[in-house]
Amino acid sequence: MLWWGVAATAAVMVWAAANWASVWPVLVAVLVAAVLGGAGWRLWRAHRRAVGADRKWRQEEEARARELTMAEVDGLSWQEFETYVADLCRRDGCTRVVVSGKSGDLGADVVGYLADGRKLVVQCKKYAPQRSVSSQDMQKFIGTARPEHGADVALFVTTCRTFTRAAQGLALRQNIVALHRDLLGAWTKGAHLETLLPLNGRGTGTPRRTRT
Question: Strand 95-99 to strand 110-113: parallel, antiparallel, or no bridges (unpaired)?
């Protein structure tokens, strides 16, 4: 097999030498294509790396900006936090927004109506970032949001980073929107409420005509 290979290679070289005028343009074209292809591949890889680095930087900057805004939110009292959430609802087109601002509100800290007429009931919990919303907190809200207040969309919004696994499970099973610190940060930075409703719990309610 080795001798056959050597013989075939020699035959090709002899043929190429005899037909060099026809062969060399093809060889040059192949070489140029290989060089251009290699350069293009390297440029594509460099572009991918640059795009990935830029995307990572933007995400880090957005997270940093959210935290700066959330630092201001952390400085609010619980009454001011409820008013702030109500203002966010108004900003996103909610109407007839009312803030309870008192204890004994049965979980309805903020009440309003979405643009499509669904009734929105919001429970606001001003907790330290490292805390978690417990299943007891979620159970209380579930027990009043729809039975007592007739919510079409029940929104539990908090300044802490997480809901416990039990609380999150309740939210998903009972169609409660669970908005933790990161999603609240996105809301404060301009994300529309309607885009946040499906992200952490189903909580989309049933569309119906605007009430009068």
Answer: antiparallel
